Amino acid sequence: MTGFDHLIGGFAVALSWKGLLYCFLGCLWGTVVGVLPGLGPLAGMTLLLPLTFGLDPTFGIIMLTGIFYGAMYGGSTTSILLRIPGEAASVVTCIDGYEMARKGRAGPALMISALGSFVGGTVSILGLMFITPPLAKLMIAIGPSVQVVLILLALLVITAVSAGSRAKTAAMIAIGLALGTVGLDRLTGAPRFTFGSAELTGGLSFTALAIGLFGISEILINLENVTQLSVIRPRLKELIPRWPDLTESAPAVGRASIIGFIFGIVPGVSHVVATFVSYAVEKRLSKHPEQFGHGAIAGVAGPETANNAVTGTAMIPLLALGIPSIPATAILISALTIHGVQPGPLMLTHHPEVFWGLVASMYIGNVILLILNLPLVGMFVNLLRIPYVWLVPLILIVSIIGVYSVNFSTADIWIMAISGTIGYLLRKFGYEMAPLLLALVLSDRLEENFRLALTMSGGSYATFLDRASILLVIAALGLFLSGSVLAWAFTGRGSYASEARRARADVVP
Amino acid sequence: MSTRIAGAVIAGMLGVAGAFLAWQASLLGLGDLASPGPGFFPFLLGAVLPPLACVIGFDCWRSGSSLAVQLGHRNVAIATAALLTVPLLFEPLGAPITLGLFGAASLILIGGISPLVAIPASGCASIACWYFFQVLLGVQLPAGPL
Questions:
Q1: Does residue A43 fall inside a structural domain?
Q2: Is B25 domain-assigned?
Q3: Residue B12 sits in the same domain as residue B41
Q4: What is the largest CA-CA distance in chain B?
Q5: How many domains does chain B have?
Q6: Predicted ipTM?
Q7: What number is the average pLDDT over the span B98-127?
Q8: Tell me: the pLDDT tens digits for A40-66?
Q9: d(C-alpha A66, C-alpha A497), whole Å
Q10: Distance of alpha carbon A217 from alpha carbon A224, whole angstroms
Q11: Is A414 on the interface with B (CB under 8 A)?
Q12: Cβ contact A171–B49 (<8 Å)
């Protein structure tokens, strides 16, 4: 079968009533969590992860991915109307989006943001569709030693591009890898760090940890400040942008699609970095840079397109290599594994329906989101009127049931509650949870391949320095350096980390 | 507690956790460099944490301020306590009662809602969740005395 035949098959899955239903539900929930401040795509995905266990893997993944890119769409709404980013990738949109809203131009800002998101999302899906299959074919040939190098590279890049302290990020990675070793050793069957508990022999529940570290800690942080928000409400007829808005935004959308596409492959905070690089590029290339910060529409179109262009390309390392590049894809890797689908190069051979169904559903999801986010924006804005403290018990109840339903064990509720509390404390002191989660997902594979490679090579560490590994390192360094040069050339301010911190500090006091 | 001291304390705890991990891993059998045992990988991770904790602690001490860190917010303390109580009651009392109590306590203590409204509201929410998960999705939740 050719790729085109597979794509047709994928559309048959995605356009079935179940495919459409779960895609719609994912997009709807994604938009809701994107709109509600304090509930980002990660919390949204982890909260609904247990609900997908009873579904066919393709529909489960379609729904979870819908939440991921739906949240990117929804995040712009609060950025524009409230100057509060619904999720991290919408931070930059606050700058000009909110200024436009203050000037009575919230409608065009929302419209351009949705159109840009649609274009960026579509471009990235094309990339996903064309790059993943050949890359997966290449990756089938690599052995365990190259896999080790690949995973170490991903973890190194995550540390390098971290928005916080690199030492703290490295510590979080070490803790994530260590948490992944709890349970039976896969090669010898020896129990590790189980302390005699039968419930820990299967390892720590990823779902419980993810919901605790992301969902619960986020809720606890938000509970410190539960003031009611005042919202600027646009009318439907105000949504239509003027002709100059479109002509100013079109080049920004084109450039941001490429920027998001490139940054999507870089592990770490790529979706956040892509937005401020896009903003800086637009400001640098604009004929009226002085308008930026005072309601320039290109300052909304660029970042919003970029953060959606990341969503598709961020799936490439996940689906072709089995390596999550951002936390949202770590949730997807866990979901795929739970469903018995091993993400990585063999997935396209063994489960083509999942990959192509997902690709097709992303096209459809983009259209659904365009429909959801424009005429129904008023409805989503009304969600912001619900006091946050009313939502908290409901979210926590769903989390508790969700976590319990994975293994039917109260131990998982303990893990969720304790990890949520620890996550809250760590986040208060500037430790990021994303590297921990990515490392947790990769821990098993890193250790298994490391020991396997040594066994196959008769204990020689030279196996990690073969030609394929060196080529891989050079390619990764080249990609990373070109990304850094691009960011530096346009922002002219320094590292990704300082840029991300500055962007957030500019918006969030 | 100032952010400087609190940051250093957290870093210290990371270091201790790393040392504990390395010690526990060493009991598992490290193997050798050519043929690592089950304790080798966690031992390496445990060994990495104390030096990292030193760097973090030093950084916190150097750049931290004497401003007090805001910990123990009333809402956070209540939510945490309520969450930690749930696993104790979940199986003996069952999901509907435990989650109903949890919801009511959260609404009254965090949301500042009158018990006359909070108790029926959380009861309804708990029953709705139970119906959705147990009946519609087939998730077996503990029923307790009900």
A1: yes
A2: yes
A3: yes
A4: 68
A5: 2
A6: 0.90
A7: 88
A8: 777 778 777 777 777 888 888 888 888
A9: 28
A10: 11
A11: yes
A12: yes
